[in-house]
Batch of 3 targets.
Target 1
Amino acid sequence: GHVFRLEDYRPSDYLILETSLVFRLSPEATRVTATLTIERRDGVAASAPLVLDGDGLTLIRVAIDGSELQSTDFLATPDQLTISQPPAAPRFQLLIETEVAPAGNETLMGLYRSNSVYCTQCEAEGFRRITYFLDRPDILSVYTVRIEAKLDEAPLLLSNGNPAGSGNLADGWHYAVWHDPFPKPSYLFALVAGALGKVADSFVTLSGRTVELGIYVEPGKERLAGYAMDALKRSMTWDEEAFGREYDLDVFNIVAVSDFNMGAMENKGLNIFNDKYVLANEETATDADFANIEAIIAHEYFHNWTGNRITCRDWFQLCLKEGLTVFRDHEFSADQRSRAVKRIAEVRTLRAHQFPEDQGPLAHPVRPRRYREINNFYTATVYEKGSEVVRMIRTILGDDAFRAGMDLYFDRHDGEAAAIEDFLKVFEDVSGRDLSQFALWYHQAGTPNLTVSSTHNPAAREFTLEIEQSVPPTPSESRKRLMHIPLAFGLVGADGRPVAYEGVEGATVEDGVIHIRKRRQVVRFSGVAERPAVSLNRGFSAPITLSVEQKADDQFFLAGHDSDSFSRWQAFNTLLTDALIAAFRQILGGREPAYTARLTELAGKIAGDETLEPAYRALALALPGEADIARDIGKGINPDAIFTAREALALAIAKVNGQAFSSLYDRLADKGPFSPDAASAGRRSLRNILLDYLTLLPEGTELAARHFRSATNMTDRAAALTVLAHRHRGSPEAARALADFETKYGGDALVMDKWFQIQAGVPGPQTVETVRALTKHAGFSMANPNRVRSLVGTFSSANQTGFHRPDGEGYRFFAETVLAVEKRNPQVAARLATALRSWRSLEPVRQAKAREALLKIASAENLSADLRDIVERTLA
Ligand code: B3K
Ligand code: ZN
């Protein structure tokens, strides 16, 4: 396949100032007439050919300025339309008529049908599946869209912008016209047509304009859209308050569809969502679902400024909109919920998804320099690490200068397609700082590591930190440059208070942040009489790994007393991880794993500490996941030994704290009506993690079954079902609960996803057979991304012992399934295939089997560009 390179960017010879589209919708043969106002860029020779992108298109006709072109005037293939001699005039009108078949489109890119609703997905390069176009994000055009459809088939006709007329046509057809005054790139185009139910509301902006809000869902599901609407209005208010950003059209619409390749899409004024991130009530959605809905509604809405008003010059700049918008949605959730809890959750996600990416064969910089298939770069690195980089800019500049920089960014680049350099420049301009070393965070892949050791000299009253940075090699980047790492820290005294110091040498230290810029820095704090415990990377100020020589006493002390709540959580989490890794080694050495009472008792103390929020306590009690432990071990991974170590620690904690956990569990029972708010969700999460421990003790199965039966919301019901299916697998109680759940929710595909997911996650060698059987279940479909991700995605990326079965059966099933999915939907298949990216860290037997599976995929015939790219990079 062709490799696209950042350095090859050049502006196009032609611009498309205006785009008028007429759709005559029909499932098998939709006619699309595009009339494009084309302008030759200044200085471009009149002889420059006009080359438009297409993808699988059928051309009907082409005309320029009203006259039909003869077949000798152009060259059309399904993937390109070339007009080798455009008119000499600098501006002309090009008319293109194409025909597309939405009904058979299972790629879910371009125009397709989901539950007989016509909808579109154009990012990144789907618009070229609708008409020939300069399908690149730096071509900004003003769109007018007329949609014609049969009234009974599609009573609702939506596109971007504001409504601009509608009416009836002959033979039971009707039409609607939409006009979007804001020039936009083609990837933000959207169309929806069908029979949908509507939830309506309105919002008055800061300057007093009224915006009509609509959320469209499958008819009959309107009552499930209330939470999403509430989240939307809160997002609109928040963006005005936090960033001074007001909404700019008369209407804002959201449509929920059942077949969608990712979470949602920020099309201008017409966001299209995976219905999983819209539909919710207590009966069908867990607290995690509510939190995701809130975050994704906010994320897509925030794109209106970061992505739509200011878009990307080219796809290498994807993080310009994605990293920044993730940062914005993180801040929104932190403000709406608990900042401390949110931060811990973010870091857990980053470590679970981005760290393994950055440490494996698919590692790439936040701003990549090359790609073969852009859809494979919507990654945790671009999104999550991209967000961390924006956060570091704020840490370095401080809140006020950061906000001033953002204001300048909106001011300076509104209406433009910008690059990362433009983004960094506004912060340099407002602060006078030099961010050139910092910019490496965008350009260099890999997770930096800091090795830290400390000494205290009481006689000299000096405390010294020795800090050394390294950045591991990543694919095609073997030599790394030194980074600028903002390391937030605290020196904590025996009373838990900050230890004062008089002076500091060896690094710039500002506002509790050490600026690491060199390979090795010795930071000396003078006037320090007592030896402090050192709390490092507070608030996770930098997305790095730390190797700290720390006394266990200090670590225990920080786990109980660090005033930075993130670092306090981290201290306990590190103690747990260290103990689990030691146990893993004991198990491999044929010994029984052993855990100290000091550790298991601390778990009890945290659980019962009423000064801490319940959600925080729940996060502390959640043991590091099997994959987290594997990542920290690094190589020679035997997932079965990790599983055994982790189960033994859970049991040890349960045994020591059984009584206390049990009475806390009783006290936390929900009283009163359900509320999805963060505090109530936090209490449920603490109670459900206590359940998890308690069911390891005698009569645990009965307790879990009772929890399941008495649950009055999906959070508790799904938690109990998980415990039963995972910890009490094979028990009659587990079988009964699974059957009950299926009977009750068999008709609700989104709820059944949880049922697939829970069974796909059951640890142990038998699960591959269960999952294989479930692919034949009536509720399962290889064509629906949510089903595939729930069953096959969960099995391959969240079931360590099941997927990594030593005989390779998990991998064989995986290879077959990836290839089956690929036939319909290459994008989803490629994403699924990343589950094997860490294959080289496995012990040799599994490693060989995993490689066989990858080779099997690689050698399949007619492999899509999407899947080929992932598999070849993974094997390289
Ligand atoms: N921008 C979209 C993602 C598009 C993915 C294309 N393969 C959703 C989002 O990040 O908001
Ligand atoms: Zn986004």
Target 2
Amino acid sequence: MKLKQTFIDFMLHHQERHKRSYNFLVLLEAIQTAAKYIQYLYKTGSLKNIMGEAGITNVQGENVMEMDDIANAIVLHYLRRSNQVICAVTEEEAEPVKLNEDGGRYFIYFDPLDGSSNIRHNLPVGFMFAVAKRNLSGPEDLHLRKGADFRAAGIFLIPTGVFTIALANTGVFRFHQDETMTYVIPENSERLIIPDDPKRWELSFNASNTKAFSKNVQSWIEKHESKHSFRYLGALAGDFHRLLSNGGMFMYPAIVNHPKPEKNRPNGKLRLLYEAAVTAFIAREAGGIAIDEEGNDILDITPRYPHQRTALYVGSSPLVESIRKQLINKG
Ligand code: AHG
Ligand code: MN
Ligand code: MN
């Protein structure tokens, strides 16, 4: 009988190969336990009547779904129990949550349930996270880390049961749940690289916003739209998952020409720390790139506050570079 390598086994060997501590392993074990529990509840959620609204809005003024709340509580519980996390930033809490101020070695930034509008349709959502390390050689000032300083970032696709993780300077790897809900790596599976065949590339963005994008983004779209298929699930976790397999570009540009000016979003919609930078970090490890509306690399942006938003263009380098040129030249 041929047994597949589990995620934890994979990580154990990774840590040993690089002569690293097991703390990171303990943290990842907590994260995957949380993901599995969210997945279990999500799959049976309609039977438990937990797929509706929670009746409150979060710090960002968005309606919170009951599953958003549940997923957040699950992740925080397992992170706290792991004793590895000094401080966590989650989409669902206004302030960073201090967990293990003395012993914790890691910062974690997460979106416990990405793609909330899919919940009531039982469509795929995601749990996205990034991990950074505290300063171990001196005092720690708790500043928010930029993507370039992340040690890892990952996305659990729920309830699909696929887990993608990027490890700093190592690559991107994909694990699938087996019959026992254990994440295992398929045989002969290699580090994931975004395909460089333009014929496979797809574009992913909310096309109903097109007229509200800047004129130079609109003209880029006009030039490129006939060359690629469009795909949009409405959950960054899922849309980006597909982009990694096929190549192309996901974008959520700044909204600057909305007919109701109060609905403009000059800083975009997505959150830098636990959405944009997560995809940027994974993209980098898969050979891709991510930029904001000014053409800055997302990984180089030091967050000023936990829920900072940013426009996002992420995917195959040639496509992202071509829109960067357009953004910088302002047309
Ligand atoms: P969340 O559900 O965590 O608030 O994130 C929603 C985000 C992201 O997942 C998705 O790509 C985007 O919002 C979709 O926005 P539109 O509905 O404006 O297209
Ligand atoms: Mn989200
Ligand atoms: Mn969310």
Target 3
Amino acid sequence: PDRRTALMARAKTLLKERNAVLVAHYYVDGDLQDLAMETGGCVADSLEMARFGRDHASQTLIVAGVKFMGESAKILSPEKRVLMPDLDATCSLDLGCPADDFAAFCDAHPDREVVVYANTSAAVKARADWMVTSSCALAIVQHLKDQGKKVLWAPDRHLGRYIQENTGADMLMWNGACIVHDEFRGVELDLLRAEYPDAKVLVHPESPRSVVEQADVVGSTSQMLNAVTSMDAQTFIVATDNGILHRMRQMAPTKTLIEAPTAGNSATCKSCAHCPWMAMNALQGVVDCLERGTGEIFVDEPIRSQALGCIDRMLDFVK
Ligand code: 13P
Ligand code: SF4
């Protein structure tokens, strides 16, 4: 605890001295979330992180999350320094959608509007017409469908299927998955719901269909947090990375929050739903960024300016 207190204090001083702001995702360590909240930064979903970083006056952004979040911040604000606590923090969706293969997929289907999830590299975004996050994906694809457009979707197959089923849009899909949400299990969730019949079920749409089908609310991390604070229920079953429970408990201290079961729950671990890449973000990393300028994000200019188009289109849409 002493080392932690010292690192917290050091990080606070450095953020102030360097005129930097910490932009954190709900899945990172609770200390980093608290640090962000206590120093004028934010804890947010991926859409809000992008907007917050773009609109903040500070010229140095510390992005605690995974690489695509740092890249999106840099794409939106090339004049700012964007630093990350650990540059190796990536995402299975990003890894599973290499830019060259994706470009070939797009080339083979030139008649389709290319819609990519935020969880992709800058090079993949450079090829897209639209970027979406979990909080606005449904509305944007509905909009495209209403315009009579056919969609090429990448990379998350569960989110893609959820959107396809809810909009009826013609969607050709990449076969990617989030290694964290893919582990939630419908059968076990059904059993858990029988134990807590009054519980509301909150599900992130990167989860399999058998889990999404049982949801009272399907949404982004911020939308799930809003549900906990605004819904009348006392008990919630939460199907997303368990890092979010930190903020949920702070925002709704009297509510009962239960983690949804994962494939690994039964035998090997109690709560497997935690992203190994999000977990790489630590206080020491924040201090290192600020003290030594480690973890800086760079995006090559031609790719950056091409990728900006699809992000701006989304931000204009959700305005
Ligand atoms: P949101 O916070 O936008 O819902 O995204 C979740 C996610 O997968 C981040 O890794
Ligand atoms: Fe990627 Fe899943 Fe981790 Fe989010 S939780 S960063 S989608 S692997």
